[in-house]
C-alpha cells in the first residue's frame, strides 16, 4: 500500500482540498483508496458526508483502543472503492493521551494500517505538529507538503521538515515533496523566490495548482464550490484551471 501524508503546519493551505481530490481521482481510476481523517476538524469526514453519531467508531478509537482495528472504524463513502477513517473533535482527547513514556505511541497508526488491504492511503493532517502528525509521518512513504506563496507557509514547511527528521528514526525511507497550491500565474519574482526557498528545504513538484478565481457571474471559486458540494473539482468544472493543473500534478507524482 502506498501511503501519502498530506501536511503543513500552516492552516488553510489546501491540505484537505488536495487530499479529497486525490482520493476521488485514484478511486475513479480503479484503485482501492483509504482516506484517514487525521484532523479533529473532521473536514474530510464532512466532505464525504459521513455522519458521526454517539455510537460511531472513529479514528480516535483506533488510536486509543489496542483491540480496535481499521475494519471496526472504516466507513464507505458514496464513491466506489473509497473508504474513510472518520474523525471529529474526540480526536483531540486521543491526541493528548498518546505521548506516553515506554510506549511506541509514534507508530500506532502504522501498526493498524499494516494489516489493511488498500492500494493507496491518503492521510489528511491538521495544521499542527502534534503526535497525530508524527504518527502519519512514521507510516507514510511520502510526505506531501502543501505550500502557498507566503512566509508562514515556508515556516510550516520548516516545521514539518524537523518532524520528518524525527520520524525518520522509525521510517528511514520517508521522503518529502512540496506542492505549490494557490499559485498565482502573475505572481512574479516574489513567488519564484518563495519556490526557491522551499526547494532548499525539500524538493518542489515542478507543476503547481493555481489559485482558482470565481467566474464573472459566480460568488465563489470552483474549488470552494466543489468542496461545499462534496465533489471533486473535476466533477464540478472539468475545464477549470485548477482541475487541469490537478491532472498535471497527479501525472507528475505518478512519474516521480
Ligand atoms: N487552489 C485553490 N484556489 C482557490 N481556493 C482554494 C484553493 N485551494 C484551496 N482553496 C480554498 O482554501 C480554503 C482552505 O482549504 P483547505 O480546507 O483544503 O485547507 P487546509 O490546509 O486543509 O486547512 P486546515 O489547515 O484548516 O485543515 C478552502 O476554502 C478551499 O476551498
Ligand atoms: Mg484541512
Can you describe what's shown?
- This protein has 256 residues and is of the alpha/beta class.
- It has one domain: Rossmann fold, CATH 3.40.50.
- It has 12 helices and 7 strands.
- The chain has helices at 15-28, 43-47, 59-64, 70-73, 91-97, 108-114, 131-139, 151-167, 188-201, 222-229, 233-236, 241-255; strands spanning 2-7, 33-37, 75-76, 82-85, 120-124, 142-147, 175-180.
- Strands 3-4-2-5-1-6-7 form a 7-stranded mixed beta sheet, with helices on both faces.
- Strand 3 and strand 4 form a beta hairpin.
- Helix 6 packs across helix 7.
- Adenosine-5'-triphosphate (ATP) binds next to helix 1 and helix 10.
- The site of magnesium ion (MG) has 5 residues, from helix 1.
Derived from helix and strand composition plus strand pairing, the structural class reads: alpha/beta
Total beta strands: 7
What is the number of helical segments per DSSP (H or I, 4+ residues)? 12
Oligomeric organization of the protein chains: single chain
**Largest sheet at a glance?**
7 strands, mixed
How are helices and strands ordered from N to C?
EHEHHHEEHHEHEHEHHHH
Given as residue ranges, the uncertain stretches (5+ residues, pLDDT < 50) are none
What sort of overall outline do the alpha carbons produce when their principal axes are compared? globular
In what order do the strands lie side by side in the largest sheet?
Answer: 3-4-2-5-1-6-7
Please give the radius of gyration in angstroms. Answer: 18 Å
Which homologous superfamily in CATH is the superfamily? P-loop containing nucleotide triphosphate hydrolases
- The CATH architecture comes to 3-Layer(aba) Sandwich
CATH structural fold name: Rossmann fold
Average of per-residue pLDDT values: 94
Bound molecules: adenosine-5'-triphosphate, magnesium ion
Percentage of helical residues?
40-55%
CATH class: Alpha Beta
- Measure the end-to-end span: 17 Å
Strand content: 5-15%
Amino acid at each position: 500500500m502506498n501511503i501519502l501524508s498530506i501536511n503543513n503546519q500552516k492552516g488553510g493551505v489546501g491540505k484537505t482540498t488536495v487530499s479529497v481530490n486525490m482520493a476521488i481521482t485514484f478511486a475513479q481510476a480503479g484503485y482501492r483508496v483509504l482516506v484517514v481523517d487525521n484532523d479533529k476538524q473532521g473536514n474530510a469526514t464532512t466532505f464525504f458526508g459521513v455522519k458521526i453519531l454517539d455510537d460511531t467508531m472513529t479514528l480516535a478509537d483506533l488510536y486509543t483502543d489496542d483491540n480496535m482495528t481499521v475494519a471496526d472504524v472504516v466507513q464507505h463513502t458514496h464513491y466506489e472503492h473509497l473508504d474513510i477513517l472518520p474523525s471529529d473533535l474526540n480526536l483531540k482527547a486521543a491526541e493528548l493521551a498518546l505521548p506516553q513514556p515506554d510506549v511506541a505511541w509514534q507508530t500506532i497508526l502504522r501498526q493498524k494500517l499494516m494489516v489493511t488491504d488498500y492500494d493507496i492511503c491518503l492521510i489528511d493532517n491538521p495544521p499542527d505538529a502534534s503526535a497525530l502528525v508524527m504518527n502519519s509521518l512514521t507510516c507514510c512513504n511520502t510526505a506531501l507538503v502543501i505550500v502557498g506563496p507566503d512566509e508562514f507557509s515556508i515556516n510550516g514547511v520548516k516545521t514539518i521538515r524537523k518532524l520528518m527528521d524525527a520520524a525518520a528514526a522509525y521510517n528511514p525511507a520517508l521522503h518529502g515533496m512540496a506542492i505549490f497550491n494557490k499559485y498565482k500565474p502573475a505572481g512574479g519574482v516574489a513567488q519564484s523566490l518563495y519556490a526557491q526557498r522551499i526547494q532548499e528545504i525539500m524538493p518542489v513538484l515542478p507543476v503547481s495548482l493555481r489559485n482558482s478565481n470565481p467566474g464573472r457571474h459566480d460568488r465563489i471559486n470552483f474549488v470552494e464550490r466543489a468542496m461545499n458540494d462534496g465533489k471533486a473539482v473535476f466533477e464540478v468544472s472539468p475545464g477549470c484551471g485548477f482541475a487541469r493543473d490537478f491532472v498535471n500534478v497527479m501525472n507528475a507524482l505518478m512519474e516521480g
